[in-house]
Amino acid sequence: MPVSSSPVEPEELTRLLIHTGRGDQHAFAELYQRTSSKLFGVCLRMLRERSEAEEVLQETYMTVWRRAASFDASKASAITWLVTLARNKAIDRLRQHREEQLDDPLRLEETADVQPTPAADAEISQERQRLQRCLDELESPQRAAVREAFFTGATYNELATRCKVPLGTMKSWIRRSLLQLRTCLER
Amino acid sequence: MNTPADHRHDDLRYAEYVLGVLDADARAAVEREIQVNPQAAAAVALWQRHLTPLADDVGDMAPAPYVWARIRDSLQLAAPATPQPRTSLWDNLRLWRWLGIGASMVAAACVAVMFALPRLATTPSVVNAGYMAATITQDNGVTGWTATMDLQHARMIVVPATPTAFVQGRAPELWLIPPGEKPISLGVIARDKPTTIALRTQLLTRLSAQALLAVSVEPVGGSPTGQPTGPVMAKGAITGA
Fold it and tell me: Are A128 and B64 in contact (CB < 8 Å)?
């Protein structure tokens, strides 16, 4: 399920999330059914451990139930709101007790399981395509660092260790990339 | 007070927050700003719209059915399980526990019991095509688990025949091994009670009389690599019903 802009789904998810915010349990159950695989994929990618990803998924949907009333469809799509919530919970979890996992040689290889250019996928959203065009304007190591950061929720320190560059270099890669992305995405 | 340079600096910090590179303290600081400063909230929301589409690149992964059950229980919802279960023989855990008792019980017998049920027998063609079974046997010949696959409802129930002891931090993980393919994880299963597993389409298409089910000893959260990392403790061939 794309994060945005497939023809039918967004309106349906928005409706389900709004109804969830009104305490509609059936809407909540259906929302879970439609979105939990996406969110679990994201959590598992970040946390790497199934049991931890399951816990974070559970926390995420419990928060969805309690906070759905604060969802504002004018500010974000439903799936963006949900993925953001899941990522934030996963990052909080990582910060709590993963700071020690710095130099894991498997890490960089693991990023290969995420498609770098999923352009062949017919489901790909317009937003994703636009983001890809802007990512393509970045230098290759910077682009890889941004993707690694997004998918793993790693801190600057962890990213520097994994990519074997000094901390200052990693910070400037990411910051310059973010500024370049902003310019590109907002034009 | 706030110069344009401050704004640029703040906006970069919000971008870093959304990307996920800030440490715990810096994250907490941004989260406080979001609460009290609408401009900060709007800037963060914009970055979320910009960057979150990257999540499209992560493959979907169906969570185990018990996650939803835990959510429902924790929130004390009356909402139905998703999808809405029919109350059926399948859902009768007592029967499954009973079927799991005794190492000599073969999975085919489970299927025979299901056939014997009048309600299911009303649609014999579906039933005949609808189930597969496997007896997952340990090296010493003792049945470890029996697995029955309900193809129509895309689920498998795995029942321990003899509760097996595991050292602390280890758990049994079930694998489907189609002929000529690498093992595909079906997830960690319980060692002392039945486990129900939802079968994705890509799994359903790989269930055949040539495929094997195997159980390996893995860390409690499941194999970290996606492939078996511990010893295979039990295996069995799938048979059509």
Answer: no
Q: Tell me, yes or no, whether B109 and B210 share the same domain.
A: no
Predicted confidence at residue B160, as pLDDT, reads 82
Digit-by-digit pLDDT tens for chain B (241 residues) are 567 778 888 999 999 999 999 999 999 999 999 999 999 999 999 999 999 999 988 888 999 888 998 999 899 888 565 544 334 445 445 445 445 544 344 455 545 555 554 444 333 333 345 778 888 988 777 888 888 888 877 888 888 887 677 777 888 999 999 888 889 999 889 887 788 888 887 788 888 878 899 999 888 888 888 889 888 889 998 887 5
Q: Which one-letter DSSP state was computed for residue B89?
A: G
Decide: helix, strand or coil at residue B153. Answer: coil
Contact call for residues A83 and A3 (beta carbons, < 8 A):
yes
Please count the structural domains in chain B. 2
**A95 vs B: CB within 8 A:** yes
Tell whether domain A10-102 is in CATH 1.10.1740.10.
Answer: yes
Q: Do B61 and A62 touch (CB under 8 A)?
A: no
Fold of A119-186: Arc Repressor Mutant, subunit A (1.10.10)
pLDDT per residue as tens digits for the range A157-170 = 999 999 999 999 99
Which residues does chain B have within 8 Å of residue A40's beta carbon, measured at their own beta carbons? 60-63, 67
Residues of B in contact with A52 (CB under 8 A): 221
Read off the pLDDT of residues B129-149 as tens digits, 9 standing for 90 and up. Answer: 577 888 898 877 788 888 888
If asked whether residues B42 and B123 sit together in one domain, one would say yes
Domain boundary among B129, B149, B176: B129
Start and end residues for every CATH 1.10.1740.10 domain found in chain A: 10-102
B-contacting residues of A 35-64, CB under 8 Å? 36-38, 40-42, 44-45, 48-54, 57-58, 61-62
Exposure string for A88-115, b = 16+ CB within 10 A, e = fewer: bbbbbbbbeebeeeeeeeebeebeeebe
| Chain B CB within 8 Å of residue A150 CB | yes
Question: By CA distance, what is A129's nearest residue in B?
Answer: B53
What proportions of chain A, in percent to the nearest 5, are helix, strand and coil? Answer: 75, 0, 25
Among B94, B129, B164, which residue terminates a domain?
B129
Element (H, E) at B183: none
Query: What global pTM score does this model have?
Result: 0.60
Please tell me the predicted confidence (pLDDT) of residue A125: 72
Whole-number Å distance between alpha carbons of A55 and B70: 10
* Full domain range(s) for residue B101: 1-129
